[in-house]
UniProtKB/TrEMBL annotation:
Originating organism: Streptomyces triticiradicis
PANTHER family recorded: HCA OPERON TRANSCRIPTIONAL ACTIVATOR HCAR, TRANSCRIPTIONAL DUAL REGULATOR HCAR-RELATED
Domain HTH lysR-type: 1-59
Similarity comment text for this entry: Belongs to the LysR transcriptional regulatory family.
Keywords: DNA-binding, Transcription, Transcription regulation
Name of the featured protein: LysR family transcriptional regulator
GO cellular component terms, A-Z: protein-DNA complex
Top-level taxon of the source organism: Bacteria
The UniProt record lists the keyword Thylakoid: no
Gene Ontology MF terms: DNA binding; DNA-binding transcription factor activity
């Protein structure tokens, strides 16, 4: 039988596909997660994950184990949480922020699912620019936020990834890259990459504007912008390029910007974040509702 900590480590790594992020979610060390998974794989007799220096992926056996155990674990933890909520009284208002129209659309559905499950609670949503998310969470202006990741910041919890989308490069329409079908991460050494504000976590800034390519070639960094529309305006003006998620092509179509898919870059991930000291029953219930919503068959046609 699986022990609880083994199952939690396996399910979390299967969702994050990253040892560091999994350790942060579980509030343990990266070594502890690695040791737990290795021990579990020895007991089963086959690898559950395929690991390289650049990525972690589920093996066929690991994917089967995840698909068969995750629903049962969700039902068990959900039942326990509901029992706790009944005992505590899950009522009141939850204030939720989002960044960008695609996140807002997802959040509307999650908020409705949350209200359906907990009719004595309400969820009020509001849009935030990316630099506003952490200040709002820390000040208590909002309780939880749906935004892009990674956000490795002390006192901030990253919930499970809700959406993974292909990474694309926003370039000016007249740029040579605009005529290509794909670009490589190594191509960033040939251009200037725009930045996001220094007030944002270093983990997120490095994700969007790395200083070096995987082979070690330096990348020239350009100016930063406070809002996403400002960033795209700088791209269109030829000030630099910027990595974006695939949804941008639909929600931010512009005559001065072309979005070119990366052929070898990691996905752009989106998920809920909240203060570590603000993990209330309402916050946990909302996170569960959002996760169940994106896992529902209707959301994955």
């Amino acid at each position: 039988m699986l022990e609880r900590h083994e199952l939690e480590a396996f399910l979390t790594l299967a969702e994050e596909l990253h040892f560091g992020r999994s350790a942060e979610r579980l509030h343990v060390s990266t070594a502890r997660v690695s040791q737990t998974i290795a021990k579990l794989e020895r007991r089963i007799g086959v690898p559950l994950f395929n690991r390289t220096s650049r990525r972690v992926e589920l093996s066929p056996v690991g994917r089967q184990l995840y698909e068969e155990t995750r629903p049962a674990w969700s039902r068990i933890t959900g039942a326990f949480e509901r029992a706790v909520d009944v005992g505590r009284g899950l009522t009141g208002l939850l204030r939720v922020a989002f960044t960008g129209p695609a996140a807002g659309q997802l959040l509307v559905g999650a908020a409705q699912e949350f209200r359906n499950r907990h009719p004595d609670c309400d969820a009020r949503i509001k849009e935030a620019h990316l630099p506003e998310v952490l200040p709002w969470l820390r000040s208590g202006e909002v309780d939880i936020a749906l935004t892009c990741r990674p956000i490795h910041e002390e006192g901030i919890v990253m919930g499970p990834v809700l959406v993974r989308e292909a990474r694309m490069l926003a370039v000016p329409t007249g740029h040579p890259f605009a005529r290509r079908t794909t670009v490589s991460v190594e191509d960033l050494a040939r251009v200037t990459v725009l930045q996001i504000p220094e007030t944002l976590p270093e983990s997120l800034r490095e994700d969007r504007a790395p200083r070096r390519t995987p082979s070690g070639r330096p990348i020239a960094l350009g100016p930063s912008a406070m809002t996403f529309n400002e960033t795209l305006t700088l791209v269109g003006a030829g000030e630099g390029v910027f990595a974006v998620g695939a949804h941008t092509r639909r929600y931010f179509a512009r005559p001065d910007v072309v979005y070119v898919p990366f052929e070898d870059a990691a996905s752009v991930d989106w998920g809920l974040v909240w203060p570590a000291d603000g993990a209330t029953a309402r916050v946990r219930a909302f996170s569960e509702a959002a996760l169940d919503l994106v896992r529902a068959p209707a959301s994955n046609p």
